[in-house]
Design a protein that fits this description.
Blueprint lengths: L17 E7 L3 H12 L6 E7 L6 H7 L6 E4 L5 H9 L6 E4 L5 E2 L3 H11 L5 E4 L2 E3 L5 E4 L8 H5 L14 E4 H6 L12 H10 L5 E3 L4 E4 L5 H4 L1 H20 L18 H5 L17 H14 L6 H14 L3 H31 L3 H14 L4 H13 L3 H15 L3 H13 L3 H14 L4 H12 L3 H7 L1
Parallel strand pairs: 1-2, 1-4, 2-3, 6-10, 7-11
Antiparallel strand pairs: 4-9, 5-11, 6-9, 7-8
Length: about 475
């Protein structure tokens, strides 16, 4: 079930303790930034454990610099990353848990955001944020275009990596779920221990997406997730097959008919919590974070991604709780991004009004303007396809389909319009293909499921009866 807003008055007396484990082995080049991103949160109720596998590259000296802030640490052979994480969690007692690999980092405010969600939504047992990445030097380098949505159904269909994996760096859970799911990571896991844990979590509760930045994965080229990506995928398939077999043998599990709604973090809720007034400019791992945000904003403008503006403006507003002066540096770029968004929103609102009144020709012209302003904005692309079809300009609509589907293969309104256009040309196989691609990411969408059935059944009565 989705969290009920009526339950949001259930609050903890104090913010929950968050327990973080960092496994590390010979990653001194990145370790200090990782540690700073944890301790620099300014979150008071924190347990931080570092499990070093016996590094010889100066990592131990880095850990000792922060020893007084750590709940526990060790440096010795530990049997591998996932065994080390499990052992690390045995030294913790916090209600909220997560691990962060030593070459990755959290965003400012991550722990306060997580605490806010868990405090205000007692039905949330694990969560993940909008995925992001850091480059090799630790600068913010990428943010996903849409918040991720995951479900057990999607995993069991083998689509656990579409359009992306659950980002472990942005995922947190309650200790009660950890204990219910076995209280450990798979000791035999070599690469995909995170996915194996998610499969066990999915037996009991849904994963909630929070549309905010929490953690990020650092791309530096030498991590196992990159160099051993194929092996990770194959191990994931093995764990998935084992999970399916365990369920066939009678493993109890819950059934969730729909995915939960995407949650958000509100400024007023955050401002009342400890950790919301730290000073990220004093933490070296975020020394240029404001500049990173500015660069991202300018990139959005240059790439005409105005549809990201509502999310991004809200995220900057939250960050300015920590660093109010950042607003001055960011204001000109944010105003330009907001102006582009307002223009896009105005165009599409007018187009929608004309479409609803039957003026598909005028609506198509406006939607085309919106699509040209931001090709990545799905409502404009879908509206353009619909109205071109209604106006009899199906050839133009068909010509636009490849470029639009390359950007919006997982948007329901675009797929609905694409199916209408393709069906008009008798391209049933292609229409079925775009529906199946959409459902690989959104398996709970009843509208597209219905379209798939209609396409499969065909147009004549005999085929429909056969399907029935």
């Amino acid at each position: 079930m989705c969290p009920d807003a009526a339950n949001r008055d259930v609050m903890y007396v104090s913010p929950p303790t968050i327990s973080i484990v960092t496994p590390s082995f010979n990653q001194a080049q990145y370790l200090e930034e990782c540690i700073e991103s944890v301790l620099g949160q300014g979150y008071p109720n924190l347990e931080y454990i570092i499990m070093d596998g016996g590094s010889t590259d100066g990592s131990v000296e880095i850990i000792k610099k922060y020893e007084k802030h750590l709940t526990y640490w060790q440096s010795q052979p530990d049997g591998g990353q996932y065994r080390a994480i499990t052992e690390g969690f045995r030294h913790t007692s916090g209600e909220i848990m997560a691990w962060l690999n030593s070459d990755d980092k959290y965003h400012p405010l991550a722990f306060t955001k997580v605490a806010s969600v868990f405090m205000n939504y007692p039905d949330v047992h694990w969560l993940t944020g909008r995925a992001s990445t850091w480059d090799q030097t630790g600068h913010l380098s990428g943010i996903t275009a849409k918040p991720p949505i995951f479900s057990r159904t999607k995993f069991f269909a083998g689509n656990f990596d579409k359009p992306q994996h659950i980002q472990q760096e942005s995922t947190f859970w309650r200790r009660s779920l950890w204990e219910t799911a076995g209280g450990c990571l798979a000791p035999d896991a070599r690469l995909a221990g995170d996915l194996e844990l998610w499969l066990r979590f999915f037996r009991h509760v849904q994963l909630h997406t929070v549309d905010t930045l929490l953690g990020g994965y650092r791309f530096h080229g030498n991590q196992r997730g990159v160099t051993l990506a194929d092996q990770y995928y194959q191990e994931s398939l093995t764990f998935l097959a084992q999970e399916k077999k365990s369920l066939e043998l009678g493993q109890s599990t819950s059934y969730f008919p729909a995915i939960p709604k995407v949650l958000s973090v509100e400024k007023q809720e955050l401002a009342a919590l400890p950790g919301s007034h730290a000073h990220p400019n004093h933490v070296r791992c975020w020394a240029e974070y404001t500049e990173d945000l500015l660069l991202c904003t300018n990139n959005m403008i240059a790439e005409r991604r105005y549809g990201l503006a509502p999310f991004w403006l809200h995220e900057i507003e939250l960050f300015c709780l920590l660093k109010p002066r950042a607003a001055c540096l960011l204001r000109p770029a944010l105003e330009a991004l907001e102006q582009g968004w307002k223009q896009l929103e105005s165009i599409c609102n007018k187009a929608d009004a004309y479409e609803q009144s039957g003026r598909a020709d005028t609506a198509a012209t406006l939607y085309r303007d919106g699509h040209e302003l931001d090709p990545g904005y799905a409502p404009a692309a879908a509206g353009l396809l619909r109205c071109l079809q209604q106006c009899g300009n199906s050839r133009e609509a068909l010509g636009l389909l490849p470029s639009i589907l390359s950007l919006h293969a997982h948007d329901g309104d675009v797929i609905d319009a694409a199916v209408t256009i393709l069906s008009g040309y008798g391209a049933r196989e292609q229409a079925l293909g775009v529906c199946q691609e959409f459902l690989s990411v959104n398996p709970h969408d009843e509208r597209i499921h219905k379209l798939t059935v209609e396409i499969s059944c065909g147009e004549n009565g005999n085929e429909k009866n056969a399907c029935t």
